[in-house]
User: What shape does this take?
Amino acid sequence: MPKMSTDMYYAHSANHIGDWHPLTVHLGSVANLAKDFASESAWRDEAHLAGLLHDLGKYADRFQRRLHGQDSGLDHWSQGASLALTNRAIAAALAIQGHHIGLQRGDNDALKRLHPATLTNAVLPGLQLSDANLDALAARAQADGLQFAAPAAPCMQGWHQAVAAMLDVRLLFSCLTDADFLDTEAHFNGDANGKRPRAAGPALDPAAALAALDRFMADSIRKGSLATDDVRTARETLWRACGDAANSKPGAFTLTAPTGSGKTLAMLRFALEHAREHGLKRIVLAVPFLTVVEQTATIYRRVFAGFPANFVLEHHSLAGLGEESEREDAEGGASRQRRLLAENWDAPIVLTTNVQLLESLFSNRPSACRKLHRLMRSVVIFDEAQSLPATLAVPTLAALSHLSGVYQSSVVFATATQPAFDTLSAAVSKHAGAGWKPTEIVTGHAKLFTNLKRVEVEWRDAKTSWHALAEELKTQPQALVVCNLKRHALALLDALKETDGVFHLSTNLCADHRRAVLDRVRKRLALKQPCRLISTQCVEAGVDVDFPVVYRAFGPLDAVAQAAGRCNREGRLNSQGAYGRVIVFEPDDASEARHQYPTFAYCQAAEVTRAILAEHGELDLNNPAIFRKYYEKLYDVTDPATLNNALEDAIKARDFVEVARRYRLIEQNTFQLLVPWADRRDEFEALRDEAQHSGISARWMRRAQALAVSVYRPRDAMPAWAIPAKLKQFGRTGGGVSDEWFILEGDYYDDTLGLVPPEGPQLFIA
Assistant: This one.
């Protein structure tokens, strides 16, 4: 790569060996990469055009001076966006405009301000255009050999279906931003031989992966399983059904199967067979909770032991914080490579969270959207699909419908309690033409539920006090209790404080603490030792524990069913001629009904359950038709299409910034609190000392996630026991303090209860 030349325009300043980055080389490289990422879309030429134009403003003399530190505050992107508009490339224009500042607005007024006739000022206040003379910039680019042509097939044809159109823009934006990041990185990593691109992730080899999965099933599951014959038969039925359905053409699917039926591996078989049949590029699995991601990752890594490093890639806040990551760092750069691949999901199998995937689909930020192009021609699976909030259901289904209908991807909603999302198809079709009409993978799933019956449910009418429940639990050596609220769990724990073998699980505990509790619980269950686990709903979605008795506070029907999935999970009681017992009880809480549940929506769902229970007398959790009726009634009562007017208005306004702000799966008004769990006290002290003396960094935050508790931010001043962490700036303390990370001051972390601040439980995440 050449040194700086006085007669050449540059994109970036010198790298570590003194080479400058010629602008024409950068634009051409980004254009080719972006087109490659969009290669199987109809708008690949527009992606190429976006790459050529994205840094057009760097042809300005002022920007070249900026590279020498002689100017600042320049907008170098609006000029390329403006020229894209003249080439009828609206999506490219929005992507170019947003590749540094994030996607903005796509309404007519915003586009008019980008038009060459009116482009006189930068989009953001405080900035100036590097050069307002668009003709002069274009002439310099053309003199450098660049040619700009209108795309034959524009990425988007209009805004009449806004969710679909906005997804089109984000996908092109993803192609552009990933290409720009990669080429810039390659320049700054360059050596005497020129740019040094990062190593690509491994490719999906479905045939080899299927062979490994078959071996794993034969050696580790079928031969070594402790499950009963009935359970094994049900798992074989599901396994075959997923294989049989894999030749279906790409589209939207549901996979409805009872808990414990082997869904984790069966849906992997469907994905691999489906990818082999249709030439799909990767598999993305999203789940609602980190514990489930880690649990699934452990299984998948056993399946694909011996495959290339990062064949299975985790992307979530706790990825790479355990012993495996420390070992990888000691052996070489595998952990660093994993973090690089997670930036753009360059891996054949990606395990992530619903928050990471779905909020990225509605984001406007380059870093979040960068990976979205990897979803094209992929199998995207949502496990525990019932966790999708009704407030976000319609726009989410519209985006996924468009992804599957236009971009040759398959979307699978897998759960034991399948929501009746197809009843929302008419509302979805207003945002994406295909609506939501999924195909069921397991056509005989109703029989599967009947054959896999493992529990009997007792619906108690009378209210139960915590003292009475505690006395009953003392007669049950092994039992799980799932409460709706943390204050309820704490009240029951207080009533059991003199009882042996009592454990607590909630998000009051940091991640490492929760993992340790589950390890202890599983060990005691296996050894037939006393074990009473008092938990909030965090235990319900996919956590692999198997109790003979489960008590569940009255709540939404799907939540009751998820709790029942932790009872007689392996069906071992069936071999003794018995079923597991699930007891649904009403807590004796004198507060109003809406205060007995974590949210108003949760309360509504509980009341719908109560209405169906009154109608039917008893509810059979092994009957999928009951859940269909429950969801139909719930959607009739709540009308999901009208539940989020602020988000709907932002979508209609084509406001990418506001859509990103309004689309949130979880409460955002929280802060992260580093806590001194006794088993990791040394790590806590090391992190606290580093924060105090050096300030916190991205690496610090990754380490701290394992010892962090999320806490609601108070309306007024922050509590005295939460000390803000210092920020690191340019390798020195001096960047102020963090608004997101705090350190617990005082003796407010208990080895059983977790965080117990003096203000009480009102700050807790339910």
